[in-house]
């Protein structure tokens, strides 16, 4: 981990670095228009058509000979899973960030958009848009560091239960949408007596309503519509949700938990300048290199660095901003963390395994000291 | 808010029993996406209208005849509606006067006409005049405006129209004509040049048909070419000459702000009544420097509060200084927690320096300051 000892930019360099990033943002925002509006509409249309196709294929189990049912369920589940991935990532996540607020189209307003997932977009706006994006990778402030479930950094406290984390990391992946849904409820508060069960139930009401709607839709209404093919549709929907869970988990973990990302102590956010904030976003994020299809299917979180610098700039712009950001980083000696999905996720798996055992932080690097 | 609650709340006032029954199972956006493959003006709850006819009225001026969907409300002649369309990816909304007379009948045969003059640099007017085509769909808000006809119009009336101020007065003139002109009406119509004149043939035909209706065109920036045309800006002398007996007339005036002020000075107190509607072309607001803070009136529409806030602070800081606690997060323009729609007024993005006056666009309170009096949906 050689980069951890790399020299930090001087205050003057850092200010210039921040100004260049600001400038890139301003140039991009000034150019937003028709092209971006058309892009998000096309994504919306793709979600609708692929969802109908997936549900249609599953319904077709009604007319299939016995031998064809399993492949049909697999195909329908996969297609529906792709629709849900697109809905959650390239559409929902980006719209909820307010990336398309400038259009003034009620359909793409970040404040009101709701998505095909058990968690409510209201909770997400708080845990993700605010906490995770403002306090990225700051211990004790960014709940996304291991989601309070996994120990991924030596700065997190070790507990014997962590020994089993390779196992429950898999369970967490399969149920990822539920992890996201309950994240803001911080259920642990009940066990340490900070709130009562009754209070928790009150706070959980919107999440429960949303989850119930999702469950009724995927596991009751659509299977019932299929009549005799009830279980085919049921299983296809289960598979679709599962595929979405595992994929989103993989992509999101690649974004902040690869080997070279840095985490930060709480003190760092005190009096942080915008340029320092930019630097922290870059140091705490990692990109995935790949094809256009990969970028779309990851909701452009493959451009995690650009997303963290410009969370409210339309994601379809990240691909053209990335070379500029990379060049700025090169010139100021800032590490730009990118790699293939296989490579990056292998590093995540390594972290999950390594830090299930006791580990202690490396000696403090300059970047971790209070600025 | 759960998706179902949203769907139920999304029920329009026009919802029938079938829609109410379906509501819990329908996501309005998804519904709109699919039905709009069949007809682009169909919607679960949004008032939309299709352009069914486009007529060129004068240079840079077109009349668009709209066929509203069932969510668009009724209107009275003389009223305006907010019309919105997407221009370069952004939804832009402006008010236009309705120029036709609503006809009773089935909802499918309803029509509404707007007459739009292209304003130099005007985003929506340029779009509507130059690019809008038959078949395009526009958003249409509820009709508003007080300049409407009484239940039983009578007496002597004087209409003062300047430029595109003709539009609401044309609506009223047509409505009066539909009632066989129950009043003694004079229409004075000022234009800069002849090329701007709208509805001329129809107005002449009306004055030929109804002896109690008199049309007088006044040209200000060209020599009169047709006998009977007058010339010059509005003045006491001109008014006395073209519309004698002011004290017995009810005056309706519509035009640019400056024209209305002049008309008011000449008529108010001297005529039976003076009803006016002025419009000001969207002019760039002269911005005071951030350091040169003033206070402006900020109206919070949802809570019904009215505050005096400094233009030197971000809106979020200024609201908090007043003891309010609007939702907020990062305080650096990133998380969009504090975003709220600006109903009216101009704000400045403190990071980019851009000013925005588009109505109903989202503003990030933490990085925006007020430039003018504001109304926020908060």
- The H/E string of chain B reads HHHEEEEEHEEHEHEEHEHEEEHEEEEEE
Biggest sheet architecture of chain A = 2 strands, parallel
Please tally the β strands of chain A and state the result: 2
Number of strands of chain B: 20
Number of helices of chain A: 14
Order of helices and strands of chain A: HHHHHHHHHHEHHHEH
Query: Radius of gyration of chain A over alpha carbons?
Result: 22 Å
What number is the mean pLDDT of chain B?
89
The value of Rg of chain B in angstroms is 24 Å
Strand content of chain B: 25-35%
Secondary structural class of chain A? mainly alpha
Quaternary status of these chains? heterodimer
Helical fraction of chain B: 10-25%
What count of helical segments of chain B does DSSP give?
A: 9
For this entry, give a set of tags.
heterodimer; A: 371 residues; mainly alpha; 59% helix; B: 378 residues; alpha/beta; 6-stranded parallel beta sheet; 21% helix; disordered N terminus
Structure description:
The complex is a heterodimer of chains A (371) and B (378). Chain A is mainly α. Chain A has a domain at 11-32 and 127-226 and 243-370. Chain A has 14 helices and 2 strands, in the order H-H-H-H-H-H-H-H-H-H-E-H-H-H-E-H. In chain A, strands 1-2 form a two-stranded parallel sheet. Chain A is globular, with a radius of gyration of 22 Å. The two termini of chain A are 21 Å apart. Chain B has 378 residues and is of the alpha/beta class. Chain B is built from 9 helices and 20 strands. The interface between A and B is large, with 45 and 35 residues.
Topology:
The complex is a heterodimer of chains A (371) and B (378).
Chain A: H1 11-30, H2 34-59, H3 66-96, H4 121-134, H5 165-174, H6 176-183, H7 188-191, H8 197-225, H9 230-256, H10 274-283, E1 287-289, H11 292-297, H12 304-309, H13 318-332, E2 338-340, H14 341-354
Chain B: H1 3-9, H2 17-22, H3 28-35, E1 48-58, E2 61-68, E3 80-87, E4 90-97, E5 112-117, H4 123-131, E6 137-140, E7 156-162, H5 166-178, E8 184-191, H6 200-209, E9 213-219, E10 230-231, H7 236-242, E11 249-256, H8 257-267, E12 273-279, E13 295-300, E14 305-310, H9 315-321, E15 340-344, E16 347-349, E17 355-356, E18 361-363, E19 368-370, E20 374-376
Parallel strand pairs in B: 7-8, 7-11, 8-9, 9-10, 11-12, 13-20
Antiparallel strand pairs in B: 1-2, 1-6, 2-5, 3-4, 3-6, 13-14, 15-18, 15-20, 16-17, 16-19
């Amino acid at each position: 981990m050689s980069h951890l000892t790399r020299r930090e930019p001087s205050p003057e360099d850092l200010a210039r670095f921040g100004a260049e990033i600001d400038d890139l943002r301003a140039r991009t925002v000034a150019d937003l228009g028709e092209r971006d509006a058309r892009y998000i509409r096309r994504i919306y249309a793709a979600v609708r058509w692929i969802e109908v196709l997936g549900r249609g294929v599953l319904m077709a189990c009604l007319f299939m000979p016995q031998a064809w049912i399993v492949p049909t369920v697999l195909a329908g589940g996969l297609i529906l899973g792709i629709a849900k991935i697109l809905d959650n990532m390239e559409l929902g996540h980006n719209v909820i960030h307010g990336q398309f607020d400038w259009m003034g189209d009620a359909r793409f307003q970040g404040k009101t958009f709701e998505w095909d997932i058990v968690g409510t977009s209201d909770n997400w706006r708080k845990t993700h848009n605010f906490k995770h994006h403002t306090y990225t990778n700051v211990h004790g402030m960014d709940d996304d560091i291991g989601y309070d479930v996994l120990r991924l950094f030596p700065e997190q406290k070790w507990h014997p239960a962590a020994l089993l984390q390779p196992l429950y990391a898999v369970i967490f992946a399969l149920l990822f949408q539920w992890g996201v849904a309950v994240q803001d409820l911080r259920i642990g508060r009940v066990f340490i007596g900070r709130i009562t069960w009754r209070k928790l139930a009150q706070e959980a009401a919107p999440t429960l309503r949303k989850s119930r709607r999702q469950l009724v839709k995927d596991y009751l209404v659509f299977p019932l519509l299929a009549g005799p093919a009830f279980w085919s549709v049921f299983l296809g929907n289960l598979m679709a949700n599962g595929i979405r869970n595992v994929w989103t988990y993989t992509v999101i973990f690649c974004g902040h938990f690869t080997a070279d990302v840095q985490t930060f102590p709480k003190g760092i956010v005190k009096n942080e300048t915008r340029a320092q904030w930019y630097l922290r976003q870059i140091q705490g994020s990692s990109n995935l290199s790949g094809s256009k299809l990969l970028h779309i299917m990851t909701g452009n979180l493959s451009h995690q660095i650009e997303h963290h610098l410009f969370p409210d700039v339309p994601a379809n712009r990240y691909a053209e901003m990335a070379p500029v950001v990379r060049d700025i980083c090169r010139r100021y000696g800032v590490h730009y963390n990118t790699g293939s999905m296989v490579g990056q996720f292998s590093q995540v798996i390594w972290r999950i395994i390594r830090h299930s055992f006791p580990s202690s932080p490396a000696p403090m690097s300059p970047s971790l000291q209070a600025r | 808010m759960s998706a179902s609650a949203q769907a139920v709340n999304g029920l329009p006032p026009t919802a029938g029993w079938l829609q109410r029954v379906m509501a819990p199972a329908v996501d309005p956006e998804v519904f709109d996406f699919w039905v709009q493959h069949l007809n682009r003006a169909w919607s679960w709850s949004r008032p939309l209208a299709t352009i069914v006819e486009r007529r060129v009225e004068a240079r840079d001026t077109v009349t668009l005849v709209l066929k509203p969907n069932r969510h668009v409300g009724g209107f009275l002649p003389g009223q305006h509606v907010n019309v919105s369309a997407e221009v370069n990816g952004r939804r832009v909304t402006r008010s236009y006067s309705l120029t036709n007379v609503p006809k009773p009948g089935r909802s499918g045969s309803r029509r509404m006409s707007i007459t739009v003059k292209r304003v130099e640099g005007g985003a929506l007017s340029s779009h509507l005049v130059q690019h809008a085509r038959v078949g395009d769909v526009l958003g249409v808000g509820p009709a508003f405006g007080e300049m409407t006809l009484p239940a039983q119009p009578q007496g002597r009336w004087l209409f003062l129209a300047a430029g595109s101020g003709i539009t609401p007065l044309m609506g009223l003139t047509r409505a009066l004509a539909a009632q066989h002109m129950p009043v003694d009406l004079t229409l004075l119509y000022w234009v800069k040049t002849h090329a701007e004149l709208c509805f001329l043939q129809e107005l002449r035909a009306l004055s030929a048909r109804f002896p109690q209706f008199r049309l007088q065109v006044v040209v200000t920036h060209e020599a009169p070419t047709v006998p009977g045309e007058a010339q010059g800006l509005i003045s006491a002398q001109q008014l006395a000459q073209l519309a004698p007996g002011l004290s017995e007339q009810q005056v309706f005036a519509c035009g640019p702000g400056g024209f209305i002020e002049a008309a008011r000075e000449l008529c108010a107190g001297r005529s039976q009544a003076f009803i006016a509607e002025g419009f000001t072309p969207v002019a760039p607001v002269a911005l005071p420097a951030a350091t040169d803070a003033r206070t402006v009136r900020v109206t919070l529409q949802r809570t019904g509060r009215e505050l005096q806030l400094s233009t030197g602070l971000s809106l979020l800081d200024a609201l908090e200084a007043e003891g309010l606690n609007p939702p907020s997060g990062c305080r650096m323009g990133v998380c969009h927690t504090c975003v709220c729609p600006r109903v009216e007024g101009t704000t400045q993005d403190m990071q980019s320096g851009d000013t925005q006056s588009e109505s109903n666009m989202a503003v990030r309170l933490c990085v925006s300051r007020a430039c003018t009096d504001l109304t926020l949906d908060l």
